[in-house]
Amino acid sequence: PRLLLAPLGCFALLVLPPSAAEFSPSLDSDFTFALPAGRKECFYQPMRKEASLELEYQVLDGAGLDVDFHLLSPKGETLVFDERKSDGVHTVETEDGDYMFCFDNTFSTISEKVIFFELILDNMGEDGQDQEDWKKYVTGTDLLDMKLEDILESINSVKARLSKSVQIQTLLRAFEARDRNIQESNFDRVNFWSMVSLGVMVVVSAVQVYMLKSLFEDKRKSRT
User: Fold this and answer.
1) Residues of the signal sequence (predicted)?
2) What is the DSSP secondary structure assignment for residue 25, as one 8-state letter?
């Protein structure tokens, strides 16, 4: 499956149908984008009835590492509202229509935020059609110890675990990127204040030397 971004003020995610039947109808996509200060960006995700939408986001870089998050139903109802959080995970059972989720950085006046989010869409395909496609290839299964349905179930189980592993690795990379940004920011801050402390020490040392030297100077004027 491919995801398209429409060139509008609010981005739209359009899911194209798979070109072939899948073992398990699940879609997984992740994005990283920069949200300027004082801006709000919204995305649209078409969903079908009795499907599942899971969304996880993290603020990777920017002062405060926080952002406002909104998730709205096709009817315009607010399903989720996170105020100034650095990360979040939300899962909703969906109905037919376009779900909108927005990242709001209007409360910040100077700091740009780098945001990572991942979408996991479950039950977006036709289970029954997939099973019918597999049944076309079932011939003489009574001669086999393991039925084709058992093989399909095992493949689905392996695929689900692999997808979960990929998801966890993606999240770990996002956590690593955020921690690296925090460490680099702390490193720059420590270097800055170290230089300030060094400058203060040099100035204090120079003043002390001058004061001590002035104490031992003979200020008496010689008489002629």
Assistant:
1) 1-21
2) -
In angstroms, rounded to a whole number, what is the distance separating the alpha carbons of residues 223 and 62? 71
Could you report the per-residue pLDDT of 94-108, keeping only the tens digit for each?
A: 999 999 999 999 999
DSSP notation for 51-76 = -EEEEEEEEEESGGG-EEEEEE-TTS
- Distances from the Cα of 191 to the Cα of 6, 196, 203, 205, angstroms: 43, 9, 18, 21
Distance in angstroms (rounded) separating the CA atoms of residues 137 and 65: 53
| 177 three-class SS | helix
CB 67: neighbour CB atoms within 10 A? 26
Q: Cite the DSSP H helix spans in the chain.
A: 127-135, 148-215
25-124 placed in CATH 3.40.50.880: no
Q: What is the dihedral of CA 165, 84, 39, 90, to 10 degrees?
A: 40
88 CB contacts (<8 Å, ≥6 apart)? 56, 57, 69, 80, 82
Q: What is the pTM of this model?
A: 0.55
Could you tell me which residues come within 8 angstroms of residue 111 by beta carbon, excluding any fewer than 6 positions away? 37, 62, 63, 64, 105
